[in-house]
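Why does this matter for the project? Reviewers at the last site visit asked to see concrete outputs rather than summary tables. In response, this paragraph embeds two records directly. Each consists of the residue sequence and, immediately after it, the corresponding structure tokens. Nothing has been edited or filtered.
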Amino acid sequence: MMTSQQTEQPYPFVDIYDEDEADRVFLMSKPTCFVILGKPGVGKKTLARKLAQIWKCTLVDALELIDENITAETEYGLKSKELLYQGQSIPEELLIKMLLNKIESPEVIHFGYVLCDFPSVSEEYMSIPEQIEMIRNAKLKPDFLINIKCPDYDLCQRVSGQRQHPETGQIYQREEWDPDIIEKRKKKRKEPRKTTEEEEEEEEEEEEEETSEAIADQLMLTEILPNLVHRPEDFLENIEDSVAVYKDIMLRPLEELMAEQDSQYLIELDGNKSAEELLATVIARLQSMGLRNGALITKLQSAEEEMLDGLENDELFRVLASYKLVAPRYRWRRSRWGRACPVALKCGEIVMGSTDYALGFLGKMYTISTEEAMKEFMLNPRPYLLPPMPLPPCKVLVFGPSLSGRSTLCGLVANHYQGKVLDMDVLLKTQYEQARIELIEETRNEATQTGINKVKEKLEVERMLQEQAAAFTQDITDKEQDDYEESLITDERSSVLPSVSTFTSQKERDAIKEEDENEEIASSQTAEQTESSGQPGILEVSSDHPEVQEMVQKAIEAAMLSPILLPSEMYADALEEAIVELSKTNKDRYPEAAEKGGWVVDNFPPLTEHWAALSERGLLPDIVICLKNAERNGRVLINRLYLASKEEVDAKIIKRLIDEALKKKQEEEETRRELQEMLRLQAEESAEDRESMDFLEHPSASESQSKIHSGAESGQIVQPTDSALTKEKEKSGESVETEGQLDEVQRSMDSKEQPKTESTEHLETEEKPQSEHEQLKSIASELV
């Protein structure tokens, strides 16, 4: 069979009255195609032209193809033009190539075609069976075969009476130009007619038609008839030869072709009838079969109408809906594409259409972006409207914090639109590793230099503190020495044994003088070393110092965990390269998929300079998804983060609690020591005050004490007096009182420390330190 007319519906339970389903069925249906057969000059081309105009399909004729290709300056048109300029005929091979190219064009795929004067009688390039087989195997097979039959005599008489106007190329039949026939029509119009009242209105209309015919006949006789010519192919003998050749060569293969055709799709017409009658017969047959002619595309706004670019979408479509109504009180409706251009969307881009290119098709409105896109849409809108369109091109970029479901969402979106996830961490893996190595090396150098400087500063501070401590000690020593000398002078005056005191003081003076000389020598040597080093007070510290290495190690560990951010150009280059590679395989996603789109970007930095780099390269996504958790202060994300590293977080929490407990205990111990020191100082001050008071009240006791000390130094035993023993007892009484105060402080501290944390008790049980009460008693005994 040559045709594929009634295909079985794949979805038998689909509602055929659903509007979207009806549009889908129409867009996926095959357009109606016709082939008109018949003897030469039988009127095939005239019927084909009228049928193409009424049924909204494309006429495919040899002369039309030549003119069209020459006008469009195609490859075939330029060759044909060159041959015609040389006075040669166009070869059959070139005509067949132009015919096949026309049948496979977008316009014919949407509207269908009417083919006439084919197969050709000439077998210069292909035989007639080969031509018929070529039509059978065409992309769009013909649905209807229309055969115009006419007796040979009638055909020869009609064709031989044809005349052509040389300027317009229009062909006139004998009834239109023969003066005798025109005169007979005039006489017939002048004859009176007896009619009734009901026929008066019809007579008036006929009179108007006759008047117009009379004017046309007069124009024919005066202006057209003198210019008409008789073509050689219309000579009687030539037409008879053409009919004979047709019968000998072509009639038999065509009869076989028509015998194979389904009789329902074979239309046979009487060639003696006029072209209008033949057309009416064909249209009635097509309508009886419930066929639908091609849907035209209407341009809604012309250049003379007002501009509508400034209107919002709702107002814009409301105004466009009233232009060039589909039918009275039937306005255009909005399509699922909205204002997006269907042609651009099919190519993988979302571009808003312009009102200058607003079109109406199948009762809906579409806005096209450019004039070239409008031409493509008007030739064949089916590829741009068929499912799965309108489908977004899938240019998506997803932002979001860690564990927000960003990567999962990217995978789901890519799977839904049959796209691919472009993970920037994977695309830039090599660059990340190189940047990490460079960062570690840079961090190592910086940390080494910083560590050396810090260690030097630390050592310098320690040296300065030591010098300050030595100076402070020296000051104290000098002060004590001065006090001691003053006391010796006082003792000399009051001493019973002046010779012993004098000997001792002289010896001590010699020792002090010797120490001063030694210190001066050491200081002079230190100054000489400092001057010889060139940098006074600066010590040499290398990178192998333990403290420096510890700082470097900590800095490297922090650098290993810190995020790496590459320059924006690297991200743009990697993404562009990945998109170019993806576009090569994008057409395999689904039938007639676009080259552009089909990608979902993950792990892209949400920074201004990186976004500007994408804008410069033309890589901006159509959709940006930002994931955030604004409810309950991000509790969901915090919970996910905790569950992801539960063991590590729990260990850090326990460590923090233990550190806090130890710190609290240390602070309490320091507070206790400070309090004890304060009480000790108070006790010492009170003891000194009492000694001074006793000295003022009983100077003899102090003289006896000095005698005892001087006697001990000289090796003599001096017995203390009763007053001295009394003083010692008083001092011991003061020590007992101080110990009592410390016991009271200890009891108060013990009462405060009763509520303790479990972690502190655990640590106390492991360490088992000495009880604080015993420590305080030992301190008190030392103070006594």
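We now turn to the second protein, recorded in exactly the same manner.
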Amino acid sequence: MALLIVLITCFVIIPATAQPCQTPDDFVAATSPGHIMIGGLFAIHEKMLSSEDYPRRPEIQKCVGFEISNFLQTLAMIHSIEMINNSTLLSGVKLGYEIYDTCSEVTVAMAAALRFLSKFNCSREIVEFKCNYSSYMPRVKAVIGAGYSEISMAVSRILNLQLMPQVSYVSTAEILSDKIRFPSFLRTVPSDFYQTKAMAHLIQKSGWNWIGIITTDDDYGRLALSTFAIQTLANNVCIAFKEVLPAFLSDNTIEIRINQTLEKIIAETHLLDVLKNVTFTDGGKLFHFDAHGDMNTGYDVVLWKEVNGHMTITKMAQYDLKNDVFIVTDQETKNEFRNLKQIQSKCSKECSPGQMKKTMRSQHICCYECVNCPENHYSNQTDMDRCLLCNNETHWAPVKSKTCFEKEVEYLDWNDTLAILLLALSLLGIMFVLAIGIIFTRNLNTPVVKSSGGLMVCYVILLCHFLNFVSTGFFVGKPQDFTCKTRQMLFGVSFTLCISCILTKSLKILLAFSFDPKLQKVLKCLYKPLPIVFACTGTQVVICTLWLIFAAPAVEENVSLPRVIILECEEGSSLAFGTMLGYIALLAFVCFLFAFKGRKLPENYNEAKFITFGMLIYFIAWATFIPVYATTFGKYLPAAEIIVILISNYGVLCCTFFPKCYIILCKRDTNTKSAFLKTVYSYSSHSAGSLAVSHVSLDSTNTSVTITNPSSAGKPAAWPKSKDLGTQAFAHICKENATSAPKIWPRKRISSI
């Protein structure tokens, strides 16, 4: 029976299409009556023949170029309908069909679509115009076809007028998924969106990025090209060339699945809704239409390969639309799939990790050169468009780096060579302080120790030096808030106390050996040792206290360096830090002035000269420190301050105590009362003679003054009690000078300490 139908159909189709269309019935390729008519559109012939270059009469010409594959599709539709009619699926209902040959031409297909819309059981072939086609009964209830997307789009726009269901078996243009423009269109194949997506995925999986595209010059080809270009761009694949060929020249060998959706037809009304909800199984797999009217069938990936001069087609994998993966069934095809990566199809060599792509002067992004990532940048994948920036606060990266490295935390560590050297110098200074303290304690009653202000003053100064050396230890090691606050405060207060004590000594020396009565009067008013020390040191304590309260030093991470994090003490307030140092400098400058004023003293009592040198060393050290501190950064910045503290501390310590220790240890004959008195006598004789000459020249008319013996029992007020050896020596010299030259001195009372 089936064979008879095929023969009859061949007999009907072939003669009918061999001659031009004379009547509407001649236009039909195959037909069979029924209660429900199904339309069919198949490109049984390749093209429509025209005698002229362009048509001169509005008529349908005959078709040429018989397509056996499309003819078999037509037979498949007829066979399916006959199978349904011979079954009990639609009891009492017979399906009919009316199939047309589109000749791969839109014009012919449009003529067939107009006949589909003509009124059912009407003697005349007319299409009524209505505002509402809900009750309109067209010639057919549904249409199978067409094959080409360009034809399906044109036919669908006409069938949309009556929302007549149209099911295509091979039209895959993506635009047909738009249900706004094509609401009644369905298809049993996936959209080209998935096909182009699968192709782009396959190209990317094969490692290619430089390809060419060949497409047909019709709606299907142009839309597929546009979609594929978007997919390739998303996968960083470049199109080297695009070649557009005329449509309908290739042999259409696309395999289709037989549409069996009509098996589920149960009523003549709402056919479109029924079709959208149809599901069926084939080979254990469930098929259905999605929201866009597309079938979830997927694709087969085939390999065209020439073997011994013959072209073979091998199925390599199946593309799963839902999961966007390729399913490989056996190991052989898996190896073939893997071998695709050996085919080189790239414009440029891929950039390795640590490099980035730099696009050359080309319209393609796939043509580029590889450049190394700069410092503090990295790339951890091949062919990266740009290098990623490391977190500059915590990480760094060298040039051409594949990853970021964590920055090392650095500070002036106890194990650092420079730190060890500076700490050794500090320990040496502490040892000097202890040795000097022992020497002065054992020689307490010698003239040198007494002339230094006594043991208590020396102990206070030595304690200050000891604390200064100890403060350098707070500059070494991992910074903490406690050490940051302690180191500056300890140095500032202890050094201020040291300078304050030296200031009182300088003032005392100037007062003891000054022969100017006016200057002596001023100095006697200023010389208040304890108030001076407490006032000067207290002011520094107030400065440091305010510093700690309002802007205390704290630990800070310096991330400005490219490869390390410097853990350092941030001083909190540069103004407070500068005020502390500036106040010490002011006291040192006043001390320097007093010491410089009394620099010409007896050789064995020349402390003022060394105080002057000590203050000069302090000024030079800290004047050098200021620009160094302002321009230096890194973990060795605390070392710079340690060096300055050591220089200034050693300078003051050496100039203050080392000359005395030298006299005590090496010149014991000069550290006696008689030797001391002799030296002071020689200095005082010279100074008194000079002063007498000055007074004779200026005060020759004044009356002479009687010099009172300070050792007499009367003990006038002009010579107060004093245990200071220098004072006693000065008083003794004044007595001898007054006896030997009574006529030279002017008769004025000269007060002394």
